[in-house]
Amino acid sequence: MRVLVVEDERVLADAIATGLRREALAVDVAYDGAGALERAGVNEYDVIVLDRDLPRVHGDDVCKQLVTQRYPARIIMLTAAGELDDKVEGLSIGADDYLAKPFAFAELIARVRALGRRAAAPLPPVLERAGITFDPARREVARDGRAIELTRKEFAVLEVLLSADGAVVSSEQLLEKAWDEHIDPFTNVVRVTMMTLRKKLGDPPVIETVPGVGYRL
């Protein structure tokens, strides 16, 4: 899942991004509304964590523009304006969820993951395929009952493959969903991550390479 964090308080923005990355999410950061719109124009996000009181372009205007453009991401407003009227206003202009500051980070994670499931085709909370059981909420992976320890990127790549439900996923799609905007598109990081993931999942192999196209589980 790929997330955009839009927050003008840089320390808070970076802390949120770091926490989300620890949950195996790909995260980009924008520190103002104009930057958010620029990134949304280039990248496809599943969820946008959006502050309201932003410089250059107000968070409300960012939300309105994305909704008008039918941008596919789900938007959660994360703001100090936490009165009932503020929440009603934020939801009425197009936000999908609203969380007031201060907040519990565990709640933010749960809400982001819930919105991510709504942004794509509906998926069960626990994914299962080819003997693999994948629980994103608990960060647990098993194959035929055997627990498997994965790095954050291996976890993110496996989630993309499982979510595709048997469809082929290209390297470009994996870079889009499992890495952030700073990754070099010409790197071999996908191939290396796929090698280590296959090794950890064990035999018989369950990840198929489709030559010239991508990967399928």
Automatic annotation (TrEMBL):
Residues 2-116 form the Response regulatory domain. Signal peptide: none annotated. It comes from the Bacteria. Pfam families: Response_reg, Trans_reg_C. Keywords: DNA-binding, Phosphoprotein. The keyword Hydrolase does not apply. The keyword Phosphoprotein applies. Residues 124-217 form the OmpR/PhoB-type domain. The modification 4-aspartylphosphate is found at D51. Residues 124-217 bind DNA. PANTHER family: REGULATOR OF RPOS, TRANSCRIPTIONAL REGULATORY PROTEIN CUTR. This is Response regulator transcription factor. It comes from Actinomadura rugatobispora.
